[in-house]
Amino acid sequence: MANKKLRPRDAATLLLYRGDGDDVRVLLGRRHHGHIFMPNAYVFPGGRVNPSDSRVSPDSALRADVAARLERAATPARARALAVAAIRETFEETGLLIASREGDGVHWHNKIGPRLDAIDYFFRAITPPNRVRRFDARFFFADASSTRGTLGGDGELQNLAWFSLDEIRDLEMAGITRIALAEFRRVVADPASRDPDRPIPVSRFVRGRYLITLE
Length: 215
Prior knowledge:
This protein is α+β, with helices and mostly antiparallel strands. The protein has one domain: Nucleoside Triphosphate Pyrophosphohydrolase (Alpha-Beta Complex), CATH 3.90.79. Helices cover 21% and strands 27% of the residues. It has four helices and nine strands. Strand 5 and strand 6 form a beta hairpin. The chain is globular, with a radius of gyration of 16 Å. The relative contact order is 0.23.
């Protein structure tokens, strides 16, 4: 049963892409039908922030503009943990790693130095009340050329593949994922949208309706 007072947990998602313009492809996987949260939906890799994410020593810091956007609503330590979680979850679920050192299969360990400077922050979504799971999710993106490893992962995401924007239209996908994808396309396609001081759209449920506000 959903808990109206369930507090959203910090989570992070990473949209990996390759190509540009009309040839851009995005990495997506389908959540297992047995999952309580968003079963069967195609999603970007990601998940909740673990306490250990705050103890990881990255090999490079967040870019100053990315850190500034995250820190509008997070402490510097929390901002780093969110970024680390995005990279860790992506590694575990896809086998692709953004780090200066090699991983061991899908096992995350202290010898991995995530490269936080390779990711950008572009969207935030807070799960509405009355859900069995609630997350305060930050969405990041990165060019796949910054990754190492072989596509595979731990099996949590099925049918992992690089989908064209035309192919994505036919996938089963939550509305919030499509909204995030539209924002990604806007930011990547429009150089002016890369303004380091740009506001971040935040999806939240207020007084019975979904709103997009700016952070």
